[in-house]
Amino acid sequence: MIPDDTQLRTLAERASERLCVRGLVMAAAESCTGGWLAKTATDLPGSSRWFERGFVTYSNEAKQDLLGVSAATLARHGAVSEATAREMACGALANSRAQVALAITGIAGPGGGTPDKPVGLVWFAWVRQGREPVARSQCFDGDRDAVRRRAVAAAWQGLLDLP
After folding, report:
1. Which are the contacts of 74, defined by CB distance < 8 A and separation ≥ 6?
2. Of residues 56, 78, 53, the one with CA closest to residue 148
3. Could you report the per-residue pLDDT of 74-98, keeping only the tens digit for each?
4. pLDDT tens-digit map of 14-60
5. Which whole-number Å values give the CA distances from 79 to 16, 17, 118, in the listed order?
6. Rg over CA atoms, the chain
7. pTM of the predicted protein model
8. How far apart are alpha carbons 27 and 23 in whole angstroms?
9. Which residue, among 24, 75, 84, 15, has the nearest Cα to 44 in the 3D structure?
10. CATH architecture, domain 34-161
């Protein structure tokens, strides 16, 4: 099922409640979702209490310049990889006042996929200050919009699943 706007809002609301109860502020680093997660966060009234900033780092250069992703990581593993997602999340944390950060990087399509990294592959990472990042990938079916919607939902869910 492709999450609709109401479902994305519900996930963002649940995440906001969790962050507020814990007294945490978050930042987001997005690539293939192009700021969609930040939009769902800031659609909520009062989001400035728990959402500090978002980084839209679509190009490799932006990932390096804004988040400190290393050129070696990008050369060795590519933009859509566990290593890059981890570095993006850590970079969002380091370059913000947040205590929690998440990262999304993937191939939304319709082109750009390879046998090793097909269209729909998205890597996520979540990190809390003082802890190691947690990363995982998912491969989503559907067109560009469906992949991006599913990625935003999965990123929110991953944040909710953090201890």
Report:
1. 60, 63, 64, 84
2. 56
3. 999 999 999 999 999 999 999 999 9
4. 999 999 999 999 999 999 999 999 999 999 999 999 999 999 999 99
5. 28, 32, 13
6. 14
7. 0.97
8. 14
9. 15
10. Alpha-Beta Complex (3.90)
